[in-house]
Amino acid sequence: MKKFVLFLAAAMLLCGMATMNSCKSDDPNKDDETTVYDPAKDGIVGEWLSEGDNVATLLSMYFQVEKLEANFKADKTYIVNQYNKDGTSNVLTGTYQQAKSTTGNIWTIVVNQSGGGATTVTSEGIFEVTKEGDGYTMKYEIVQTSPALSTAPPTPEGGFGSSGGGSLGTDNIQKFVRVEKK
User: How confident is the model at residue 17 (pLDDT cuts 50, 70, 90)?
Assistant: First the structure.
C-alpha cells in the first residue's frame, strides 16, 4: 500500500508539472493564438512533456514510468497521461493551485488528484519555468502530503532536491518541456 501511495504521489508530481497552454482566451479550455505564454504570469498553465532521461529517477526506476504528458489548464484543472515501460498507461485528473514564491522564479503548487487512482491524493511541491532557446523547460518536484507519507515536500527556500529535507536528492526532480502549439 505504501508503494502504491508513493506511486500516486509521484504521479501527482508529474501531473502537476505536465502541461501548459501557449495561448489564452475567454474559454480556459480553448486556445487563442493571439496571446503569448508568459511564465512570470501564467506559471504552469499549458501543455508539458517529460520522457526519457527527463523523467524523475524515482518514477522511472521504482514505478517504471516512461513518459508523462501533462496539461495544466487555466481553469485550475489538469490531466496527466502517464505511460509506463510495460505498455500500460494511466490518466490522472484533478485540480491545482499555484503561487509565485518570494524565492527567485520558483512557484509553489498544490495538486489535488481526484481521478485516475484508487484514492484521492493531495501533493505539494515547487516548480520553475526557464526559457531555453525558442521554448521553455520546467523543473518540477512534488511530494504526496495527504494521505501523509513520511517525506516532507520541497520548499522554495530549500530549492530543488529539498524533498524530505534533501533525503531524496535529485531523484524526485522531474524535467518537462513545454509543448508548443503549431
Answer: very low
